[in-house]
Amino acid sequence: MTKKKLRTVIIGVFLFLFSSTSLAMDKSVFQSMMDRLNAKDLEAVALFLAREKESLKQDPEYHVLLLNYAHLKRNNTLIIARGEPQEGDIAIQGKDTGEAVGFIRQGGDEIIVNAIAQTQQALPAFSSRLDIHFGIVTIAAAIKRWDIVGNQLVDILTVSKSIKNQWKWGPIGSMEGEPRIFMLGNVQSRIQQLFRAEDEIADKMHIKVSEAMIQYYPEVIYGYSNLGVIYLATGKYDLAEKYINQALAIDPGDPVVKGNLKVLKQRKKSSE
After folding, report:
1. Which phi-psi region, left, alpha or beta, contains residue 26 (left: φ > 0; alpha: ψ -120 to 50)?
2. pTM of the full predicted structure?
3. Is 65 within 8 Å of 26 (Cβ atoms)?
4. What's the mean pLDDT when you consider all of the chain?
5. pLDDT score at 154
6. Residue 236 near residue 181, CB atoms below 8 Å
7. What pLDDT band is residue 8 in, cutting at 50, 70 and 90?
8. What span, in angstroms and rounded, lies between the C-alpha atoms of 54 and 36?
9. For the chain, what percentages of helix, strand and coil (3-state, to nearest 5) are there?
10. Is the pLDDT of residue 171 over 90?
11. 42, 143, 152, 228: which has the fewest C-beta neighbours closer than 10 Å?
């Protein structure tokens, strides 16, 4: 069984940024800027963000606007250049030869990286805003910055303990059920996204976040199961067995973990 086939897809909740009641920004101003974003009037929002950068730098709603703006701006930025097309590019073919002479690529990744950095710097002022934490994760994943995704997930787990899971969310959308369970479930869905990426950095972040899950929530099966799967996928069978058995000790009937144990036994047998 190949590494790609082994990886199990677990459907999670897709989270993006939701507006919420502002602390410093007037509610009507915030809604006006959100309306402009929805209308793709990015120039007006860019002017507002630049003008209010200092006065609202610790306002969570400013950063909701900033991250949404960065996401939309990046999606509306194209790079047209000569060279060899990469995966995901649109090839530009020569008229006479039909061979690729250039490419069209979605650009503007630095816009998202800069917006995330600015928001992370301000985040301690509103660290209980779970929508903003997951907003960072979402737009970082959109540009495959798995390092940012993983580190932000670890930060969510760390903050969750310091605030005793007293998370806050905006009025558009909501946390479904108990905040601790909601947070853990959505962190888990993002760990699965790291796993499906099949990327070396994503795998390292998968391990880092799963270890943090065990550190902060040792009673929860997710961290052990995640490590069992990643080590199974990468051929580290002794470590895989260790964590799969720890997961089964928490929930002996979990069908995913039991299935992974079966695969592990088959792989170990075939490698003898």
Report:
1. beta
2. 0.82
3. no
4. 85
5. 98
6. no
7. very low
8. 21
9. 60, 5, 30
10. no
11. 42
